TrEMBL record:
<feature type="transmembrane region" description="Helical">
    <location>
        <begin position="20"/>
        <end position="39"/>
    </location>
</feature>
<feature type="domain" description="ABC-2 type transporter transmembrane">
    <location>
        <begin position="5"/>
        <end position="200"/>
    </location>
</feature>
<feature type="transmembrane region" description="Helical">
    <location>
        <begin position="59"/>
        <end position="79"/>
    </location>
</feature>
<keyword id="KW-0812">Transmembrane</keyword>
<feature type="transmembrane region" description="Helical">
    <location>
        <begin position="164"/>
        <end position="183"/>
    </location>
</feature>
<feature type="transmembrane region" description="Helical">
    <location>
        <begin position="99"/>
        <end position="125"/>
    </location>
</feature>
<dbReference type="InterPro" id="IPR052902">
    <property type="entry name" value="ABC-2_transporter"/>
</dbReference>
<protein>
    <submittedName>
        <fullName>ABC transporter permease</fullName>
    </submittedName>
</protein>
<dbReference type="InterPro" id="IPR000412">
    <property type="entry name" value="ABC_2_transport"/>
</dbReference>
<keyword id="KW-1133">Transmembrane helix</keyword>
<feature type="transmembrane region" description="Helical">
    <location>
        <begin position="218"/>
        <end position="238"/>
    </location>
</feature>
<feature type="transmembrane region" description="Helical">
    <location>
        <begin position="137"/>
        <end position="157"/>
    </location>
</feature>
<dbReference type="InterPro" id="IPR013525">
    <property type="entry name" value="ABC2_TM"/>
</dbReference>
<keyword id="KW-0046">Antibiotic resistance</keyword>
<keyword id="KW-0472">Membrane</keyword>
<dbReference type="Pfam" id="PF01061">
    <property type="entry name" value="ABC2_membrane"/>
</dbReference>
Length: 241
């Protein structure tokens, strides 16, 4: 298992675009936004916080979305299309271990991305670290698992790697929209903001725990439900070849 995880991590590092967008892009975007003086000024729209303070949770969403909905389904679908999973089934190593390795690589990459983001937040812009670390950690894990489950569901249903990328792209855009990546959440209608708070990876719970409030248990329950339902359906309908 360790050998498989190590190999998958090496393959991940050989994809420069994925490394850049999932690990480096959130911190780079924060540096770019923080270079604008108006976004470093307290604003009543953000509860007298700066825009960059309230946008950190969206940056976490970006990192998780790239890993769960861009990397995971495309990689798994490509492995199936090229016969990698079928070949694994002829060895003592069950193909499911390859899927577990993908999840582990995603979690490790996500942790590195968020830790780097926290370092930039604290050292460059004096943004406080999560005030409710336990709530943030729980939301992060559930957010990663829920998006990964959706990514595996796409990989299970998509007939080819190309179609997996297209289907996952649609889900990716929806996650990014409701997560405030395309349009800041304070500019959205209230009902869209509320809907986004209950969709993976839980931008509302991420923001609440970062600012010091315990995340809404209902939001966490929805993330757990999505993980279980999407993961179960993906497992039952997954094709190894």
């Amino acid at each position: 298992m360790l050998k498989i995880v190590t190999t998958e991590w090496k393959l991940f590092l050989r994809e420069p675009s994925m490394v850049v967008f999932s690990i480096l892009f959130p911190s780079t975007l924060l540096l770019v936004l923080g270079a604008i003086p108006a976004l470093r000024t307290p604003d009543p729209n953000f509860g007298d916080l700066r825009f960059i303070d309230s946008y950190v949770s969206t940056l976490v969403v970006i990192a998780l979305a790239f890993l769960g909905l861009n990397k995971l389904p495309a990689t798994v679908a490509t492995y199936r299309e090229k016969g990698v999973l079928r070949r694994f089934s002829t060895t003592p190593v069950h193909p499911a271990r390859l899927l577990v390795a993908q999840l582990i690589v995603n979690v490790v990459a996500g942790v590195i991305s968020v830790v780097l983001l926290m370092a930039v937040c604290r050292l460059v812009f004096a943004i406080d670290l999560p005030h409710h670390p336990v709530g943030f950690l729980v939301t992060f894990v559930l957010g990663m698992l829920s998006l990964s489950a959706l990514g595996l569901l796409v990989a299970a249903w998509a007939p080819t790697a190309r179609s997996a990328g297209g289907w996952a792209g649609v889900v990716f855009m929806l996650v990014m929209f409701f997560g405030g990546a395309y349009l800041p959440r304070f500019l959205m209608p209230e009902f869209l903001v509320r809907v986004g708070e209950f969709l993976p990876p839980g931008v509302g719970a991420l923001q609440e725990s970062w600012l010091g409030v315990a995340p809404d248990p209902v939001q966490l329950a929805v993330l757990a439900l999505v993980t279980v339902v999407a993961g179960t359906v993906a497992a039952k309908s997954f094709r190894w070849e």
